[in-house]
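Record type: ASSEMBLY
Status: queued
Input:
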Amino acid sequence: MENLIFGTLEQLSEGLEKKQFSSVELTKAFIGRTHAVDKFVKAFLSFDEKKTLTEAEASDARRSRGQSLGRLDGVPVGLKDIFAEKGQRLTCGSRMLEHFVSPYDATVVKKLKDAGAVLWGRLNMDEFAMGSSSENSAFQVTSNPWDLDKIPGGSSSGSAAAVVAGEVPLALGTDTGGSVRQPASLCGIVGLKPSYGRISRYGMVAYASSLDQAGPLARTTRGVAALLQVLAGADPKDSTCARVHIPDYLAAVQSNEGKKWTLGVPEEYFGEGLASEVKSSVEKAIHFYETQGYVVKPIHLTSLEYAIPIYYIIATAEASSNLARYDGIRYTYRSPRAKDIDEVYDQSRSEGFGEEVKRRILLGTYVLSSGYYDAFYGKAQKVRRLIYNDFMRAFAEVDALVTPTSPVPAFKKGEKTSNPLAMYLSDIYTISVNLAGLPAISFPCGFTNNGLPIGCQLIGKPWEETTLLSMAYAFEKHHPFNLKIPNL
Amino acid sequence: MIHSEVDIDHLAKLARIEFDEREREIFSNQLQNIVGYCSKVCEADVENLEPMVHSFSHEDNFWAEDVPEHCEDGVDFLSPNAPEMKEGQIVVPRVL
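Status: finished
Output:
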């Protein structure tokens, strides 16, 4: 079973289908791997082996009756600790929810269960998805499996690290400003941020509601496509989840093989601050596409310089409102010191929230406060339109944009913790995608001399995940960087 | 650029967050820094642009009818999560 831990989804599904191994055997292999390596990686916040093995047994029983539910049936999937799974803990990486147990299933969890997936563990994250390194988790810092002294990216830190470490073959994360793509890039796997509204947010803890979107992570593009297939679709419980056509992603990736697309290269993404090794790897990927007959043209996205300022205005404004619900009354941490109702609010929030969450709540409160609302929040909403229009102008000429995912490879733990602004700047290439609601994918395009993965990002038109998956797959077929395995 | 002082005490009161003197100073400096950076938005030319509150409008999407669902666990589903419960009710400190 050892070699299966790093198998692709196709290999795992085929092995289950042909009864070369059972879901219980497969699941036990991942559980064993987790026990062996997670003391170093620290990707998991909690897990329930008994529940997971019960799900695997149910899958095997279905298969033996000839009632398999499809390619995910019996395959373990990890969940970022932000999704509600009935009866399981959901901490969101915060002391505020340290003992919270979900009373219901998120829509994505229900869909995974309906597809027969075996849910394995709750994966570490920056508190309330606010961060780019896992260092804002209230419980532990996840290590990058390629170099344990480095961060794995964030906020879906555990999701990316667990997949590349072979602790789970597929995982679900969330992406508000790059939180699926940046850790996927830094860990050397594939991560997709779908169009806003592609996947239901019901049962996913809210950070910034107009930007949050769930996204799949896997070792391969086809693994990501298979997971998206199960998760996509309208949901009466989330009115922002769109009723739009859902293609057969895997079939489309297959039928698009050999297709020549037009790629735009936004020059603003290749300037100051981009590490030379990242730049040269992404340029090599662009060159590959040219050799495949793609038309590559330079374009301009001049609004990039506003992306970080307006993201931190809009996201924190929404966060300050969303996180007002954590008041120490109904289901959150309550300070034992509090003697009256005001102290319950103030002390519970002060003790329950970590530093970054407090910083963002304060910033969001500031930009929404009297005297600053128009100058900051009102203006940022208009600049958001500017960014969207910039993208749409580009998409009149090209099918997708190609950029680095992160300006730098994985950095050392502690390197940016004392300077929040420096940490915010590591999201420079990913956040405008969320502001415009577009789909984007990160896939591995090389390694640094020190053996750290480098990610390339493709940004697509609204609802055109298929185009991105097809392009990423075209590269992956000729450059199997994703099949390299870290030494643990 | 907007030249604005961050009144950290006022913000803390609005956000219902308390901190000690050390945290107060750190947050105050960091927020002043971040606000200075964010004031870059003022430079953008946004004349004739409509604010964008959401990426896509889904006019055909409506909230689902709010039909109460039967909860098989009754109020018991609250008990693992509520800080304090008594006779099926969440206990809070006296308000009056």
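Annotation: Chain B has a mean pLDDT of 84.
Annotation: Chain B touches chain A through 55 residues (CB under 8 Å).
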